[in-house]
């Protein structure tokens, strides 16, 4: 175990080591790695066995999809808490067109624009759009708690109804609906049901997301043979399937977000470009993130069982009783609740892959060696390995709800879910999620609402394409 202060200080004493690993022969090497990654080993095993084989958390490998979608699947993988941080150093790495890794979806998915998340910090458009988003988020802060609490009340009522009708409730479905409503309302001021989208928003966005992200996953259907499933890694899925759905989404945002679009125009961003960016922000960044994170949070809290639930309920109810209401400052007074949220973000970071390109020849350090990455090489980080690094976190694979309480707070700088350290702040000059604090707030509110209403709950969990699936099997009302 390193002490929390041991890294990321430079370690000049580390010896320079050749980066181990091989890309194999062209064409066949990437396909072999792809089969190992998706079918023969699975992703965690893929990385684990290579770390052991090379005795290194930094090595060369191909990353999917490879042929024929990405022309260059070669990466240097960084898989420990220390080397991973090179991905956040915008002076040394470029983040252009690399959000999804070694391929980029066709621009028609985004109205023909390279939207903010695909822009590098050196591009002037990135600065303009990110500033616009940061201002919008900061100006909306009074809406966060009321909108989220309304959504959560509906969510829990829906879950209760479904449990009483069917014996269990699909958390993911109701959570998606809540997330979409919340985000759409934040951006436009209107509920999606009041627009021509009606209740179709989440389904439209899910299809739009699946078409873009298909090369990074599998169908998950056991009865489909690997070579058939592998077709989705070989050819891009076409945009036309969702063209009219995207147009409806765009129009709904365009017609309802007038004042925000006026602001964008005042700051020099063309109205259409701003609107496609808002659609991406709402549908990909926000909805896509929440879609993965909320079920994951509930999954991990469910594993804590009655003991954790009692501790959370006690903390939450006593603070709310003393403070009289749920406010930003009330939420700050709940150390266990805060820590449990950070722990969920640590143990299962909702966006697990990060990529960047070296702007110049750079030296990076793992815990035990230094490595030279050449200008233009792609660097890839699989975040769960960085935030479950046994040299930084004790019992890294265990969900320890109070890990970040008291002295444990010092470990927050090793929590990277927002594409930077939890102790850093998003700005127009970096690539950190501009909604970092909002996301943490939403998770805290979810736990507060849950344990104000219920003493405990049970869930069955599984896996779907983008993360955890959660079926709530019981909710025990607060006594
Ligand atoms: C659970 C929810 C969320 C998660 C897990 C999440 C995660 C992330 C991550 C990891 C990135 C960096 C991606 C990369 O470059 O590799 C990012 C970027 C971004 N996120 Fe979030 N996010 C969430 C919610 C939101 C929300 C609610 C908004 C807006 C209201 C938002 C807006 C953005 C934008 C605009 C970027 C691009 C930043 C840039 O290019 O500099 N995100 N987010």
From TrEMBL:
Record-level GO BP terms: fatty acid metabolic process
InterPro entries: Cyt_P450 (IPR001128), Cyt_P450_E_grp-IV (IPR002403), Cyt_P450_sf (IPR036396)
Keywords on record: Heme, Iron, Lyase, Metal-binding
Names of the cofactor(s): heme
A GO molecular-function annotation: oxidoreductase activity, acting on paired donors, with incorporation or reduction of molecular oxygen
The keyword Heme belongs to this UniProt entry's keyword annotation: yes
SUPFAM superfamilies: Cytochrome P450 (SSF48264)
Protein name: Cytochrome P450
Organism annotation: Helianthus annuus (Common sunflower)
